[in-house]
Amino acid sequence: MTEDAIYERLNLLLRPPGQGIHAVSSGLSDGVSFMKLWMPTFKEAWIEQIKNIPQHSICMFGIPSDAGAGIVKGCAHGTTAVRKSLFAQPVLDLGDIFCIPHYLSDSMLNDKQIEASRLAIYPDCDESVRNSLPVSPLDMAAEMVRLVLALRPDMRFCMIGGDHSVTWPLIKSLVDNSTEKEKIGVLHFDAHTDMLEQRLGVDICFSTWAYHTSQLLHKPDHLLQIGIRATAHPKEYWEQNYGIAQITAKEALQSSAPQLAKHCAQHFSSRGVTKIYISNDIDATDKSMAPSCGTPEAGGLYPHHINSVIDAMIQEGIQVIGMDVVEVAPMIGTTPGIMSTCRNAALYFKNQLKAMQAN
Q1: Cα–Cα separations (whole angstroms), residue 43 to 84, 100, 142, 208
Q2: Residue 137's closest CA among 27, 62, 53, 60?
Q3: Is residue 37's pLDDT more than 70?
Q4: Alpha carbons 147 and 141: distance in angstroms, whole number
Q5: Are 208 and 202 in contact (CB under 8 A)?
Q6: Do the beta carbons of residue 221 and residue 245 sit within 8 Å?
Q7: N or C: which end of the chain has fewer CB within 10 A?
Q8: CB count, 10 Å around CB of 108?
Q9: Model-level pTM greater than 0.70?
Q10: pLDDT above 80: residue 132
Q11: CATH of span 3-358
């Protein structure tokens, strides 16, 4: 595929930042007003940014989808809310994956529905190209990452969700793009394990992505989960039956932040893991500090615990090749709770980006 063809395809899959949710009238003005703050020249500036992908080593994008959530929805709006809390564009922003809100994966759709949706979202596209394009957020994100890596093979990605299912296409693409010798780890902050093999017959969603990720890695314990507290089984069940590593919220809170950070860094370095993906579900944070999400849980981590662990990756020389902040639902809760949730999410994003830029 030529470079021009790649850019053409990217422009079909993506929308300007804040524009990934389809809105004919209601809600459109908020996205447009945000875009004018983020990029004063609006769409023209975004199009020019897309053309500069090869000149950047780090980029960000959003997947405004909560189709994979299973409790309370609302985190589709997290992509814009977190960007607003960042105040300024920290790295190249590719925009948002355009999301049909009813869809999760193309594998869940029949051919007739896929054809109808292709006609709806790619109406002016050449038929031969249109018939090869995905229509669901997980598949569109995977295709977008594949195209960006074709332009810049060493690109590192910062993603804003969306529910936790949106982690899957990015992390799978990065693992698939790695060499056989590279040992990639996953640093996973969460109140929940997300370790179901299926949920109600669905392979990839908010509560299954971590299980499938553990199967991608060289060894299951290259997945380290921190902050777990809402689970039907004790830590030993998950470690013995699935081989992953866990630090429960109770264990984390009983340690000082420096002790916790050192333990996490040594977990990866002792296993020869030199590259990691950081996935940060906002509900890993105690609900007093981050109540605006679909499944807030008491007894969670505090920002200094999470940020100390992220900082330890820098000190240990571990390279961050991808990261996300997910499950922020800015329409849930009161104004103070919404503000604290978005503020902490933005701080995590900045700190994870700092770790990515350091090594």
Answers
A1: 17, 21, 23, 36
A2: 62
A3: no
A4: 10
A5: yes
A6: yes
A7: N
A8: 15
A9: yes
A10: yes
A11: 3.40.800.10
Q: Name the residue with tokens 């809402």.
A: 230
If you search the block for the tokens 């503020």, which residue do you land on?
A: 343
Q: Which residue has the tokens 């949106």?
A: 166
Helix ranges (H only) for 217-302 are 235-242, 249-254, 257-269
Instruction: Say how far apart CA 118 and CA 127 lie, in whole Å.
Output: 10
Contact present, 210 and 188 (Cβ < 8 Å)? yes
C-alpha 175/C-alpha 222 separation (Å) is 12
121-159 burial string, b = 16+ CB within 10 Å, else e?
bbeebeeeebeebbbbbbbbbbbbbebbbebeeebbbbb
What pLDDT digit, counting tens, does each position of 251-307 carry? 999 999 999 999 999 999 999 999 999 999 999 999 999 999 999 999 999 999 999
Q: Tell which phi-psi region holds residue 327, choosing left (phi > 0), alpha (psi between -120 and 50) or beta.
A: left
Domain ranges of the chain: 3-358
pLDDT tens track for 338-347: 999 999 999 9
Instruction: For 319-354, give one letter per residue: b (16+ CB within 10 A) or e.
Output: bbbbbbbbbbbbebbeeebbebbbebbbbbbbbbbb
How is residue 99 annotated by DSSP?
A: B
| Tokens standing for residue 60 | 């960000």
Length of the chain equals 359
Section 160-169 average pLDDT: 98
What is the tally of helices (H) and strands (E) in the chain?
14, 9
Provide the sign of the torsion angle of the four alpha carbons 258, 189, 336, 63, taken in this order.
positive
Interior CA angle at 165 toward 160 and 171, to 5°? 70
